[in-house]
Design brief:
The structure is a homodimer of 460-residue chains. The first copy, chain A, has 460 residues and is of the alpha+beta class. Chain A has 17 helices and 18 strands.
Chain lengths: 460, 460
């Protein structure tokens, strides 16, 4: 299925009537909107539009619906499973220009923003209020994209994911209707939870044009530390015991020996190239002290060394920047290589086994693939660092990925903890959810009967 | 719409084939299954069945679907907005006999249970594991009912509601298909969030037959206190400031002067009959101490008196039992009276205004109606204590309720924080969600095209 050239030409004219030069068919612009940060092939849309309001998005959607033209919402293009690829052509709806912070209610710890607002932009805006938005997937993604993919990241172990932190949405439905979900109350028992349905729907049910988010007070004390371990098992067991003890750790990140070597080189750091945990503790001075004591004791029992502290904000930023650069650091291990990131999530009691078996499988396959993880959630990532011209490497990576997903599912886990399905993991959805996929399909059909909203994603 | 007597007779025979004597058409049994704890009129089903497994529920549903017979899932009948009334007759599916705790994974802090398991039963079962399930709506409700109504209660301010604490479900769909949602991983980005769609769907999308719940470690220290205030505004301002300061208080409950008088009489307590806050603090010894210091200082600044402590488990239980008996205590104020409970939830910055205006409205109406609330969430409840033979009183209560809901919605709140819509609040859903209701209706139609699952609830 693709849209006839004639219809595209008509649509361009109609879009220009109200968007003027905020409509582009330039090859470079379309190419840029047809790819994310993954290894998935570029699939450019026919048209890119840059609306600036909910009303403009609704007009775009109504027009596209009339021409039966696919629509793909676009934020910053930092997703990892081919979420924005225009598999059937159509219109990329780039909301990056809708980047206004519409209101901040400091007393209610909430805010309302447009979907193009980026994570760092929001936190800079909030700085003087004493509040922050904790969800941090690494990339400086748009909050619209983060909502659509149910993003999480390093802080999720304490603050939850986008699922827990979106209070309400404005969504343009597939027929151009504008719907407001949720509200400002902290809880509600009034009807179906549409907010949670749109969070993680990857643009397949509508276009998110406004988001109400929960905010948090900046903790009195924040402290970060790095701890090296002799063994991967020791590091993971420390994580498991920390969670089981109920320590409200804010971040607890694993980097395996391959990844530590990579970030040492890339970021000019001098950590031992052994399995390592990065921690961050939030709370009162006394509370942080208590958490550190508990976790320090657990680490010492599990082959962990001394904690190296980063208490000043600059030191903390440097440490987390190094963590966030893990993917680029891994890529730099092999100049000219292409990265392929994937993630799974398992119950925490199975985390050590799942990581160790996966590490052994990678090593046996002869591939280069550092492991990092938001391990407090049971979530970890692989980044295969591949030679793009070697089809054999790609095939082996696919096989390792398949086995890792199968392993995670067998252990009661999920095929993706936070990257989403896009079209890269579409083959695993049935295996994970079985008959549930048919329920998802019924909902998709009910809300987007023409299959125009980001077609080919999530549902096969 | 109601089912022809002939079809009912055939259905009874068919049901008896596999359920034997676990099928009842006795008037008393049907009456008991046609009412909840609310003022709403009894509407008995034609048949009550007592299945014992997912498979039996699926068989019941398939048969009902074939006869186009309405089905109403039934737990303990403690809901408050007419959720279980068989408005169009049909079959009440009583799952109270499905009350097995199927697994407890202490190391992963989760469990899997049947829907008839009750809140207290679960916590008794967990006692030796050092874990607990925090959601506590007061009534000893079934977890199936709590899931279906998105229940919350006193602990929600710290631990969230059923929305945050259900990890996965087994659901029998309207056509008898069995679907499993969610999983054991703490987070997942794999497809639409069906779990959250069923949580709060009030039996209108399917019958919940298994629930996976999140558990928590019992805190090292727990302490409860009661603090009396000179004014309602002082009590509410203390709550608002506590939340804004980020104190992780486990419970923070308001009882107004009318309610305090009622519980003093009912439970033989000697508290001042003034607006009062009940607190509970969870954490480490030191953490609880810090929380108490902060909240104590806030209370003192807001006309609060001394904290009266309940640290021993028996004292704490007695205190919370008194809180939970608030509704019965209110009823006892006026022998022969009928209670009518309603609730709303607003952003916390509007809580004082909303409660004070509502109190003034009740007083002006001449009605007896104590106010209690899970005020840390911005959620409060009214219980009108009415003469059942006085239509004028009922009409005045309806008017006060209407104005309270309108007030809450104008303040950015919701028409129900935790009781749900049932059919009692069906008239408010449009006002709250507008076009969103049409999206809910599309989903309902897609998943239950015959409108057989608890018809007449949530959606008009």
């Amino acid at each position: 299925m693709s849209v006839p050239a004639e219809a595209i030409a008509t649509l361009v004219d109609e879009l220009r009537e109200f968007l003027g030069d905020r409509v582009s068919t330039a090859a470079a612009v379309c190419e840029q909107h047809g790819r994310d940060e993954s290894y998935h092939e570029t699939a450019p849309p026919d048209i890119v539009v840059f609306p600036e309001s909910t009303e403009e998005v609704a007009q775009v959607v109504s027009l596209c619906a009339r021409h039966r033209c696919p629509m793909i919402p676009f934020g910053t293009g930092t997703s990892l499973e081919g979420h924005v690829q225009a598999l059937h052509g159509g219109v990329s709806i780039d909301v990056s220009g809708m980047n206004e912070i519409l209101e901040v209610n400091a007393e209610d710890l909430d805010c309302r923003i447009q979907p193009g607002v980026r994570r760092k932009q929001l936190n800079e805006h909030l700085r003087d209020t004493g509040l922050f938005f904790p969800i941090d997937p690494g990339a400086d993604a748009s909050l619209g994209g983060m909502t659509a993919t149910r993003a999480s990241g390093t802080n999720a172990v304490r603050y939850g994911t986008m699922r827990e932190n979106v209070l309400g949405l404005t969504v343009v439905m597939a027929d151009g209707r504008v719907v407001r979900t949720g509200g400002r109350a902290r809880k509600s028992a009034a009807g179906y939870d549409l907010t949670r349905l749109f969070v993680g729907s990857e643009g397949t049910l509508g276009v998110i044009t406004e988001i109400r988010l929960r905010l948090y007070g900046i903790p009195e004390a924040m402290s970060a530390a790095v701890c090296s371990f002799d063994t991967l098992a020791g590091a993971v067991d420390t994580v498991i015991q920390t969670i089981q003890c109920g320590v409200p750790v804010a971040r607890i990140e694993l980097l395996d020996e391959v990844q530590m070597d990579a970030i040492n080189r890339y970021s000019g750091l001098g950590y031992p190239a052994t399995p390592t945990l990065f921690f961050e503790f939030h709370g009162s001075e006394q509370g942080v002290h208590e958490q550190v004591e508990t976790v320090g004791a657990l680490a010492a029992e599990n082959t962990g060394g001394e904690f190296r502290w980063a208490t000043r904000p600059e030191e903390r930023s440097r440490l987390w920047q190094a963590r966030h650069d893990a993917y680029y650091a891994a890529l730099a291990l092999r100049p000219g290589a292409q990265g392929w990131a994937t993630d799974v999530c398992v119950p925490i009691s199975n985390l050590a086994e799942c990581i160790l078996e996966t590490r052994a499988d990678i090593d046996a396959s002869g591939l280069l693939a550092p492991i990092v993880g938001h391990v407090g959630d049971g979530n970890f990532h692989l980044a295969f660092i591949l030679d793009p011209d070697d089809a054999g490497e790609l095939a082996r990576a696919e096989a390792v990925n398949e086995r890792m997903v199968a392993r995670a599912l067998d252990m009661g886990g999920t095929c993706t903890g936070e990257h989403g399905i896009g079209y890269g993991k579409i083959g695993f959805l049935n295996r994970e959810h079985g008959e549930g996929v048919s329920v998802m399909r019924s909902i998709k059909r009910a809300l987007d009967p023409g299959n125009l909203m980001n077609p080919g994603k999530i549902l096969p």
